Structures are given as structure tokens and as C-alpha cells.
Amino acid sequence: MHRINHLRMILNDRQIAIVGGGPAGLTLARLLQQEGLQVKLYERDVNKDARVQGSPLDMHEGSGLAAIEKAGLMKDFKKTFRPGADRKIIADKRASILFSDHETKLEEDFDNPYFRPEIDRGPLRRILLESLQEGSVVWDSHFVSMEQESDGWTLNFKNGTKVHADLIIAADGANSKVRAYLTDIRPFYSGITMLEGAVYNVKKSAPQIDALLKGGKIMAFGDEKCLLMGSKGSHDMGFYASIKVGEGWAANNGLDYSDNAQMLKWFKEEYCEWSSVWYELFEHGESPFVPRPIYCMPLDQNWETVANLTLIGDAAHAMPPFAGEGANMAMLDALELSECLMSDKFNTLQAAIACYEVNMRKRGAIAAQKSLENGALMHSTDALSTMVSFFSGH
After folding, report:
1. How far apart are the C-alpha atoms of 144 and 160, rounded to whole Å?
2. Cβ contacts of residue 155 below 8 Å, gap of 6+?
3. Nearest to residue 167, comparing CAs of 391, 394, 356?
4. Domain boundaries, given as residue ranges, for the chain
5. For residue 312, which of 337, 348, 294 has the smallest C-alpha distance?
6. Cα dist from 235 to 50, 67, 215, 290, 313, whole Å
7. CA distance 46 to 57
8. Residue from 142, 179, 128, 138 nearest 17 by CA
9. DSSP alpha helices (H): ranges in the chain?
10. Which fold has domain 188-296?
């Protein structure tokens, strides 16, 4: 005899609103629509082409890849990921190569649990968007505020529109505005700031770095700082200069991030003993460069579960990028929340959301701890030898 699924009966009549159209929000929308639920996703971008997409994502077994599989999109993913983009070299500050897996790593190895295929953010977003029902995404919906209304919420957007929703899932990133309606816990500064840049047509603009990159990734370490770079589609490259500075450095250093000459001068001073090979990043990088102070949610965060609002992705557990877990945890949030909402084990939405949140906070804290530890290691005096020995052992 089948158990009655009370939650499905409840959710069949509810309007679900997801705020934010990154990997977490889009994945959740897809998974809930597969179950026949009414879902609208509200995204601040004016359309699907409005945003310049950042660095590629590496998808992990048991999290990002598991969500893609459950969403029925693995075939599309395999057609779209970039074979070989996960290959890496580790270099010292003088651009000498100390480790490379270009000769040993297979381009495609989906049966290997340690395989972490790379995909550009734009193509991943396109796969997810195209999987959704027509009209699911409401563009140009910049969230401003919301008010409780009976058992649900009224959401207010910058363009003046108001909508009602019975259940809201905040997927609006590390600077989430929706999060404040559930908890006042704030992230803390990790001690590291990353200066982000991009080089277009890297073969022509940065030939020395292109020769090292070979369509993969470079990690260079020295003097308690690092350079991290990776190829993107269309022969472009994204990079980060990562340093230990105070929280206010980005706003108070007097640098003009749009001035390549000034930024190159800064790099020559900050990375004073580093090879001139790296100068190509700032000579030919697209300005403005973007400083990104790296924050992390407290590992012991907790809040009281409510029946009509929850968090996924960076809105729930922003963490440093040094373990590659952010997008993977976000997509796993979508997978686990959808499974809790569809489960016949719970009689109320609050019980289902509570189960999701307890597990999400626990594994989010583990991933964040690893990210913090990796960040400290990568900016330590012996980062180079430690990273070489780590990857050589794998």
C-alpha cells in the first residue's frame, strides 16, 4: 500500500518563487518542474545574455554531477563540457613548471570518481535555461524587499512589480538580500582578496602564458601569494592575483582598476620577484580589473526553520573558492531540497525544509572548513612545495 505524500498534495497548490538564476536556482527550478510543480524564477539580469560569465566550473562526483544527472541533463553536459580544461600545471614565481598532468590526465573519464570535468558558466547556464518550461524565468526582476502576507510573501522588485509566492527559495548569491528575512548572521572576511581579470584571445595577447596554459589551468605560488588562471571558451582566459591584505584594501588602496599601466605597476611592486612572463596578464588584460574580498559564512551558523522560506547556494553558505566546492554545494543544495520537498516522510513543509537545512549546514560547514584550510595553505610560505607534493601524490 502506497503512503500518501502529503507534501506533494500541499505543494501542488502552491506558487514557488526562486530568487536568483545562478547554477543553484536554475537547477532547483528544473528539478521541481520535473515533479510538476508551479515554479517561477526571478532573475535581476535583463535577459539571458546580459552577464559576462566568470571563471569555468569544475563539476564533482556526488554533488554538481549528481544534480545534473538527476535533472536529466548529463547527455547535454557531456556534449558541452570542455575536454582537457581540467588539466593543470603548477609553476613557481619565475614561471618554471614543477608539476604537470597534461600527459597523464584523460580528456574524458566520467567513470573515475576523481574526474572533475570543467564547463564554462555560460554554456552551463544555457543548458539549464533551455531545460525549463517557457516563461519560467522572469528577467529584469531585481529583488528589493518582501513582506509576509497570510502564509506566504509579497515580493517587490526594482521595476515596480509585485508578486505573491507561497514558498520562497533564496538563490541570490553571497550578497543575498533575501537571507536577511531568515537570519541576521553575516559572513566574515577570510583575510584574502583576489584581483580578477580576463585576457581575450590569449594566444595573441599573452603568448608566453598561452604556451604554459595549453588550454588548461595554471597555479603559480610564491612569497605567500599566488596567481591562478584557467582557459575559457573562445580562446580566452580568466585569472586571479590572490593576496593576503586587510578587509578594506580593495576600497582604500587608491588604485584605478581601469588603468592597465597603473595595475601593471602595482603588480610589479606587489609581486616584485615574479617573472616578467606574468606581466602579460596586466598589460593585455581587459579592464577594469575586479577586486574580490573573500568572505565565508560562520561554520556554526544556525537559524530557526520556517515553512515558507529557505536558502540555497552562496546565499546559504558562501565560502572561499579554494576547494572548488561553491557551485557544487549549491547544485547539491538544489538536489537535496527538491528531494526533501518530494519525500513522503514529512507531513509539513517546515519538517521537510528543516531536514534539508540541518544537512545543508553540516556539509556546507565541512566544505567551507576545507576551503579556508586550502586558502591558508595556498598563501603560506611553503605553498609551492606542499601543492606540488599533493598533486604528485594524486
Report:
1. 10
2. 17, 19, 42, 143, 145, 146, 162, 163, 164, 165, 168
3. 356
4. 6-82+119-186+298-377, 188-296
5. 337
6. 20, 28, 8, 21, 29
7. 23
8. 138
9. 6-12, 23-34, 64-70, 74-80, 121-130, 202-205, 207-213, 249-252, 260-270, 280-283, 314-317, 326-342, 349-378, 383-393
10. D-Amino Acid Oxidase; Chain A, domain 2 (3.30.9)
Instruction: List the pLDDT tens digit at each of the 394 positions of the chain.
Output: 455 577 888 888 889 999 999 999 999 999 999 999 999 999 999 888 776 566 788 999 999 999 999 999 999 999 999 888 888 999 999 999 999 988 887 777 777 777 788 898 889 999 999 999 999 999 999 999 999 998 899 999 999 999 999 999 999 999 999 999 999 999 999 999 999 999 999 999 999 999 999 989 999 999 999 999 998 877 899 999 999 999 999 999 999 999 999 999 999 999 999 999 999 999 999 999 999 999 999 999 999 999 999 999 999 999 999 998 999 999 999 999 999 999 999 989 999 999 999 999 999 999 999 999 999 999 999 999 999 999 887 6
Superfamily of domain 6-82+119-186+298-377: FAD/NAD(P)-binding domain (3.50.50.60)
Count of H-run helices and E-run strands, the chain: 14, 17
| pTM for the model | 0.93
Cell of 83: 575536454
Cα–Cα distance for residue pair 137/47, rounded to 1 Å: 9
- The residue written with cell numbers 599573452 in the block is 206
How many residues does this entry show for the chain? 394
